Amino acid sequence: MLIDLAHASPQTIDDVTAIATRPVVISHTGVKAVCDNNRNLPDKQLLEVAKTGGVVGIGFWQTATCGNDATAIAATIRYVADKIGVDHVGLGSDFDGAVTTPFDASGMVLVTEALMKQGFSEEDIKKIMGENDLRVLHEVLPE
After folding, report:
1. Largest Cα–Cα distance of the chain, in whole Å?
2. Residue 121's CB: how many other CB atoms inside 10 A?
3. Strand pairing partners for 4?
4. SS3 for 16-28, per residue?
5. How far apart are CA 117 and CA 139, in angstroms?
6. 79-133 tens-digit pLDDT
7. Alpha-carbon span 89 to 77, nearest angstrom
């Protein structure tokens, strides 16, 4: 079982990460230090997810990043990578239509370019763009 804490309360996140023996994910969210609102995660919870070996997916909407472009997304990803390590951050687009995003899946090249401008290496960009998520899936799900 893979636990996604994307819509969990702060207390639930704390409770689950305290007892987790395998990686957990927060598939789509923002970060309070970058964009301060009630929905986004404080640094403490970023660290808790990383301690499980999990991944935090950064959302593509205004409330997640306080911006409406790939630059804001990449800046939030940079913050998370610097705080908890590049192995624990990924994309959390939320392309399901419930929120407005600055582009659809055809605009992913914009994120790649913005990550390059943030100074991420090709290896780091591969991790962010999906390898971190695949690592967690391979670790958690049965064969």
Report:
1. 40
2. 11
3. 25
4. HHHHCCCCCEEEE
5. 31
6. 999 999 999 999 998 777 677 888 888 899 999 999 999 999 999 999 999 999 9
7. 7
